[in-house]
Amino acid sequence: DPQGRFYCGSIGYDEALGKVTEALASEGFGVLTEIDVAKTLKAKIGVDFRRYKILGACNPPLAHEALSSSLEVGAMLPCNVIVYEGDDGRAVVHAIDPLRTVAAAEPSLAPFASRVHDKLERVMDKLA
């Protein structure tokens, strides 16, 4: 995927949420935020939307390293991972590629972005 790494699985949405959280933890990420997009859209504008969550994942040592190099990188933290229910009922998981975001915005952070990229790639591989 040109936008980043993604996984389209044969598992359901609820199972995918659990597996994503476990896979993130295995790579040192905790989920700091969880936005239930469907619930928010229903509450705010009264529309129905597919099951869709945005997980704000953070690896504290890597976040500290990046922020110590560039305070502005905080605008791109935490790493967002989305999980939604596809039209076929199966889960879709997508994580943006920090090599295309963080490293593109701040080239000096390319080594950091590369390490985060590798960790997120392993997360997606664990879902396969």
Written account of the structure:
The chain has a five-stranded antiparallel β-sheet. α1 crosses α5. The protein contains five helices and five strands, in the order βαβαβαββαα. β4 (79-85) and β5 form a beta hairpin. With 128 residues, it is an alpha+beta fold.
Strand order of the largest sheet: 1-5-4-3-2
Q: Unreliable stretches, pLDDT < 50, 5 or more residues? A: none
Strand content: 25-35%
The rounded distance between the terminal residues' Cα atoms is 15 Å
Largest beta-sheet characterization: 5 strands, antiparallel
Cα-atom radius of gyration: 15 Å
DSSP, total strands: 5
What keyword list fits this structure?
alpha+beta, 5-stranded antiparallel sheet, 5 strands
